[in-house]
Amino acid sequence: MNMRKFMAVAAVATALVPAMGAVAEAQTQIQWWHGFTGRLAEILDRQVSEFNSSQNEYQVVATPKGTYSETLNAGIAAFRAGEQPHILQVYEVGTATMMAAKGAIKPVHQLMAEAKEPFDPANYLAAVTGYYTTADGEMLSLPYNSSTPVLYINKQALEQAGLDPETTPKTWPEVEEVLTKLKEAGNECPLTTTWQSWVHLENLSAYHNKPFATQQNGFAGTDVELVFNGDLQVRHIEKMSEWAKNGLFVYGGRTGEGAARFRAGECGMMTESSAGYAGVKAEAKFPFAVSSLPYWPDEEGAPFNTIIGGASLWVMSGHEDDEYVGVAKFLSYLSSPEVQARWHQETGYLPITQAAYELTKSQGFYEQNPGTDVAIQQMTGKEPTENSKGLRLGNFDQIRTIIDEELEAVWQGNKEPKAALDEAVERGNQLLRRFEQAAR
Amino acid sequence: MEKRVSFNHRLLPYLLLLPQLAVTAVFFFWPAAQALYQSVLQPDPFGFDNRFVGLSNFQYILSDRYYLEAFGTTAIFSSLVTFISMATALFLAVAADQVIRGANAYKTLIIWPYAVAPAVAGVMWIFMMQPSIGVIAYYMKVAGFRWNPTLDGTHAMALVVLASAWKQISYNFLFFLAGLQAIPRSLIEAAAIDGAGRWLRFRTIIFPLLSPTTFFLLVVNIAYAFFETFGVIHTMTSGGPGRSTTTLVYKVYADGFVGQDLGSSAAQSVILMAVVSLLTIVQFRYIERRVHY
Amino acid sequence: MVERRGIGTILTHLALILGVAVLCFPIYLAFVGSTLSHDEILSVPMPLWPGGQMVENYSQALAAGTQVPVARMLFNSMVMAIGIAAGKIIISILSAYAIVYFRFPFRMLAFWAIFMTLMLPVEVRIVPTYEVAASLGMLNSYSGLILPLIASATATFLYRQFFLTVPEELAEAARVDGAGPVRFFKDILLPLSRTNTAALFVILFIYGWNQYLWPLLVTTRPEMNTVVIGLQQMMPSADDYGNWPVTMAAAILAILPPVAVVVFMQRLFIKGLIESEK
Which of B27, B132, B194 has the highest number of chain C CBs within 10 A, making it the mutation to test binding with C? Predict the structure, then answer.
């Protein structure tokens, strides 16, 4: 190729490309880095452009930064170079990392107070915001996309197994009956799950008011010890291991892979995030129902509430005061009932305020889409206890990996449930000690 | 491995080296040294607190009873990827070098899979092999083979090996072909006239003359299998099931980049670099000596 | 060429066709997937022949994400890919020449210093590299996109391997003729390296084009986005349900430009091969 000629063409091309980014210089720009792509990014972009056209002082610029972990790394690298955005979306396992970085963040409650933005934590759903709130009740980050695990039921599979398709098993023993019937009728995948650690250990513990870790699940301090090898958890994993052996439970993978099998109609039931609703609705060619996550009826007081997963918005430090006023206004806008209600209805994520929930209800959404309110009811049925507010663990991503490894050994039949959980606790505790030393 | 003939010039060699060394120093050594320095620190990711902890990161990682297991996984994974991708590429290159009709079409078709970005390659392989909708998975099931990479470690290993090797075949093909084209035709024709068959010609003339290329590709492919494949592993198996596809670099990546445990990740990098340096020295000393120039 | 006809040739063709088929199958399947409806893909097994949803899927993929004109992103990718390929080739051929053809103190040290770059993946050192780029004011610039990525050893190593195979007599003859090192390099070594340079250019161009993580970090202004980043935006989020046809359409779009370049450069490349044939 003639390089000189190419360069000349290239130079002309540059000159022809209109100067971008020169728009709206007078407005204060607010950078928001997020980890969404595709459909979710479009919905997010629409929220941003609606905010931008609703006033003319501030302009929010939403920039996609890849996956969740890429977004977090981009934010960290940028902070170290003094180029950080105002708002950073961080997934729930990164919560402790962000909290430990006290100089890098501006807690949401403080932001709102300094910007004199009206803000009442009582308007928010405690079950959702609790995950990102200190033990003293101060909100650190604003939940953006949150979901909680529920039970999906393939009505057609139930019918084929001679069961009433409207059966909605409430407890694990009831689930077992249904699974056995499904299996007897030749179903090869009576039950599957996504995100096993999140559903079958983290949420299992919260739902039965059992600690997952000491120090109020890490809310009260960093000297945390994992304790998810208690009687309840061992019993639950033993039951699932037995199901796995007998073909009642089929493991689908560490993250969302199992959902594909359910959507394809292979599985009778699935425990999955409430945000998986949109996918099931789009793909399933069979009638389905959404029901609350099953519980063990002989556990005292059960069920309590489940906990969330997803990501929240962290405000980063080091910007000008007037910019923070804009950030506060934007977070208020995101929390407003209309925005929240629409977000909830379009994505299947939970609304973060009571008002948004009421609004969705009054719009008749839950009647038209049965099952979409199961998650909220399951979360708000009871006041969160110190075991069911959420989890705040350092190195949480690696702890989940350890749990995945150990549980996979159980499903393979290579390890006894009790031994696997004991080992996961022991290995996880080492990681917590490391984090404690680094964070101090 | 030195030229007997060399030029003498005091300044010129340094001038020639300067651009590359400058770029390497600024954009590799400086940041890499900082990254590796973290192996004796317990840093928080945001860089507020870098406490010196001596060798405790090493102590921590070496006391992990499963860390040694990852060495074995890495060895199996890397040898399989290197062997499969190099052998396939060599075979195709020799074939493509011989045909006349349609030679260009073959070359293009073999090279262009390299154009697939790593992130995209992972998606394509999942699409093909995913147990519930993947076409290949379906036909394996029809053939009576229970394909289950989510619980069977061997299946998962086969999956990441094939996807990683596939990505590298075009690369190897291109350089093998360049090497083959550089072999003087007269040599091969002379051998053919002497009655040497294809296999004999390949074994006694072509392969030895290709050895500098083969050695280059061997080093590059091992480096690829070690260092560039964690993306494939991350998208396809996340190191599982169990720890069956957790290679050393995948762990460095998962602990440091995904999990933000920079001290442990840096310590693992140091260990890894020591191992690879040793391996490289062995390669250069013992294999390169036997390479025919 | 020897043995022009015969059963051997047919076998060779068969082997090549089989090899090509196996290599291209994942991409072909992705293409088929991009022309089907979501339901067709889900009805296992999906058809192996393209369907009728191509226009819908591709326009849906193109409508997603991308905040900047595609032309701008194509231009950025082109600048970055050519910059990386040309930059790497230039610095590598020079340093390999110095290492192979000169005797000087610290020669092997220089080689190993360059070679070390193979041994630490970019993800491990990405945060400090970003800090260096930021302190040099290189964020959101083409030099920031290009320079950190040309610090690599493979090209230097390839030239070293190649130079070692160049017959000694050539350099000797040049010296007898009184040609200095610069003339020897220009008149003899460069033309001889054409095949390898052509192969390297193809590989490096694609390498540069497909960069994802570094451009994602080092550019914060949308007008500096590359095509690969734009395309990544078309894929569904990790949280979202997979929309296979649109994902596959985005995947096919992502590989189109580099494939076009490979096919185009193939001509150039083959020319280099034929001319160097002895």
Answer: B27
